[in-house]
Amino acid sequence: MPQIRTIRLKAPTSDLYVSWARFAERHPQASFFQSEAFVRLIETWPEAEGVLVVALDGSGNITGSLLGVLICETPGRLWQKSRLKRIHRKLTSRAVVYGGPLLGQDPRQQQPTLRALLLALHREVKHRALFTQFRNFFDLSGFRTVFEGEGYRYNDRLNLLPGTSSAETAWKGITSNRRRQVRKSLEAGAVVVTEPSARQVDEFYAILRTLYARKVKKPLPSPTFFHALHALGPGPANNHPPPGTGSGYAKLLLVIYENRVAGGAACVMLPGRAMHEWYGCGLDREYKKAGIYPSVLATWASIEYAAKNGIPVFDFMGMGRPEIPYGVREFKKEFGGSWVNFGRFSRVNRAVPYFITETAYNGFLFLSRLVNYK
Fold it and tell me: Into how many domains does the chain fold?
């Protein structure tokens, strides 16, 4: 059984942390979400706490790792008292591993390493997270029995990866309808800003917040998260650049029309590897009469950015379950690309609180549909 080390992620400076950062960056399945850059983002994310687990062989060499994040919802006014805040955190916290684990290349060590990592992760989060979920960025079907042996269940999840070998290839990959909407938006006077001001980030967040409250019905990080994302810069942990300087790890591409933000996309990336569209929105209905399609333009601008900056993979970060209709999938499929189904692995850690929260959430969605029914 490999030796397991858990690295505390508050101002990490140990030699093992430096070795892990190098291992993660050079790994064939490397991504932003399994990198030192994500650790730095988590440090400034008020609703989140990072968990990093590393496996070592007998010689002290890293044989695998996984970086997870414990996320809770921002408490409303009702939950502001300290005791209620603790209850709120326990009822909304979940542990998510994006694009992990990263396993060494020796096939003899991979399964025991994965099993040890899963056990260590569960020890860290079982009393703090309602459930743990692995959102897969690559094929882990060969390790399904290991996950299931540790209490995880597999669910299908589609994704779409547009071609970004060149801007021309990306442009040809989208439908004629989407190309027309991009051209029409630009001709009508919309522009894409890649280094927005703090005020523009706030305007983008206001659009996102309305979208998530009225339609998406899922948790959204606080404004602090998006400003931290925009300020994320290259370099070692705790080397934070001034806000608004942009970076090689995150990009906010905002659609501006008549000096107002009409939509945008918040993307993260690992240079030379992959770019992920994490959040996106647009006031398409409001600007349609002006001939502007903010969601379309923001999505295209993100794909084009990846193509022009030598990023070989553009990731929409999920297109829903294949058996369930999903409006986002219908919108994004017109941007072309390769369909994949790497799925997700999930494990419930605290059954009773999970059942209470799930029941309350589904009830809230049902009531919201009744209120908004026309």
Answer: 2
